[in-house]
Amino acid sequence: MRTDRVRVRFAPSPTGALHLGGVRTALFNYLFARRHGGDFLLRVEDTDQGRFVPGAEEYIIDALKWCGLTVDEGVGVGGPHAPYRQSERGEIYRQFAERLVASGNAYLAFDLPGELNERRAEAEARGEIFVYGAANRDALKNSLALPPDAVKKLLEEGAGHVIRFKMPANEELALQDIIRGEVRFNTALLDDKVLFKADGMPTYHLANVVDDHLMEISHVIRGEEWLPSLPLHALLYRAFGWEDTMPLFAHLPLILKPVGNGKLSKRDGNKMGFPVFPMEFADPATGEKWRGYKEDGYFPEAFVNMLALLGWNPGTEQEIFSLEELAGAFSLERVNRSGARFNPDKARWFNHKYLQEKPDEELADALSLMLEAEGFRRDREELVKICRLLKERATFVADIRDAARFFFRAPLEYDEKGVRKNWKAETPALLLDLARLLAGLDSFAAADTEAAVREWIADKGVGLGQLMNAFRLAITGFADGPRLFDVIEILGQDETTRRLAAAVERLGH
RNA sequence: GGUCCGUUCGUCUAGGGGUUAGGACGCAAGAUUUUCAUUCUUGUAACACGAGUUCGAUUCUCGUACGGACUACCA
Hints:
This protein is mainly alpha-helical. The protein has 21 helices and 14 strands.
């Protein structure tokens, strides 16, 4: 029942964690709804009891939340069309399926799964593919082929059956897709899809069309894997007499593996060293554990920004977008037609960009949490200074933590190569002198210590590089790192002179 | 196999009948720097192929190749 109001839905199946492609589909739906002041619904398509994974639904809700995609209506929030979980929508689907049978658009089929498999095997042996459709449905076990009293008898006996759609024998269909334009199909090549299963549940096709109609969905934005079933869905709308209010369709390109062939799969992440899921997920059935962007240290804004530009672009050279900016700029017309290879490097780059824009205080709080997890606390002011100093070289907060280790603990060992290269015979005496100089300074601000040291070595005729490398080694234990005068300002006068003395003691003369 | 979809630098992409085919990631070089990064500058690199239409095609059409999806009582 399409109205002028934009209403879109994200309709995942709770068969596991939502992966990158699913999140992007949700994102594009969300963006489209926001762009047009419409509604974003979440509907859970759990009509396959066999594939249900406990926890998957909660995961999906949490993942959308983490990404900042607020659901207006649906599972978890309710709404005028509740329930939004298909398994709870009771008799609705059966009634609609029977309506189709009554109108001659569908029929009862009693074929046993085993019989069908046999036929498939036979066909395959001949190098053919078995299709349950117009060409052979009269020779199969269904209400179209069997005499009425035989059907009646089967029903009375309680014979298991499904309801199949009666595909037109030979009809040319020209359908519209917002992203792809006109797509043509001939129904002669299509099969009589099962709409209602013997277990009393609808299949995706029926439930999807019925719910989209009932929930007044205006646009169906989904993955390209659904394009082949577009004719079936369009025909269903027609059979129900809902053609006038049929939603508009947009089929999104797929996300492909970074290298190799095929679409991105959940295994690729572990294989190639990047997460495929927004958040960590432990599959209760298999015990497998999957990494997540959240746990890997990505900011949700960066993750969403990266995803938005995978298959869509604004037509300008802007690359950094807040969720609000994305909502303002998004349009389905600018979605690409071809599949996009996922690029983990670019994802990292986005995070680096976002990290640079974060206030030092916010980074310090995140860093503080990490340190607490390791069992120690530091003064917040100190952490803010550390973040200010280290953020530009970091992609993740964890990079700051790793680069900041020497702030929290004086070096016990010293980079071997650095020592070999920079620890000369005259170094110990020089550093001891330096320690005395620094100990006597009134201000330990970076600018002041630097000025004092520069003046001092100029008098001594020592090169800055010559001194600084050994100095750095003594203070941090490493041969590389941020500007040393900034480091010792944070470390403080006492700690600095102490480390200088300790290094001389350890590394000797 | 069949049906459908797609094809611009290695990757994400802009563009579009006449352009030095633009940007970003990556990579490389240079600059800056006490080191390593960062940053900045520069560079590297693309219209899958073949016909047709046209004065002219990377852009339009067709074909081929290649890639992808679908082909369940899964979604």
